[in-house]
Amino acid sequence: MAFWLIKSEPDAFSWDEQVANDVEPWTGVRNHQAKKNLAAMAVGDRAFFYHSNVQRAIVGVVEVVRAAYPDPTAETGAWVCVDVKAVGPMPTPVTLAQIKAEPGLEELALVRQSRLSVCPVSAEHWQELCQMGGWVEQG
DNA sequence: GCCAACGTTGGC
DNA sequence: GCCAACGTTGGC
């Protein structure tokens, strides 16, 4: 299983909306690097749900429930999207400031490439970020 | 194919 | 609101 981080501006689409909708198609990605990451996702992969811009924090965890398929919001069919399902909120949102202050997390794609909206996260970093947020895996 | 101009994203 | 990073476009 792989780990990811997906960004959304809460003004456009927030964690609350993700929870309310439960399963949501993650559309609108128009960046080749991000597309590559979407295409690499498999059902069962986990992703952090990150609020960019106004909040700048990891606020929840989602699970990939449908692998990459053509993004219906792209006329040309050249882009892809996945479906993600809300798993649960971060007990304590992990802020970008905390992430940047943490030695060992400076290699995170989120930090190194701030404009990339779909980032890979290593298993080690995933564990560390979960600890920082007080995330407890159930069952 | 290079590079300047411009637009967008996102942190501060 | 400003600016840095980076992607895209278009002239040459």
Automatic annotation (TrEMBL):
Pfam families referenced in this protein's UniProt entry, alphabetically: EVE (PF01878)
InterPro entries attached to this UniProt entry: 5hmC_binding, EVE_domain, PUA-like_sf, THYN1-like_EVE
Highest rank taxon of the organism: Bacteria
Domain EVE, residue spans: 2-132
PANTHER family: THYMOCYTE NUCLEAR PROTEIN 1 (PTHR14087)
UniProt protein name: EVE domain-containing protein
Lineage start: Bacteria, Pseudomonadati, Pseudomonadota, Alphaproteobacteria, Acetobacterales
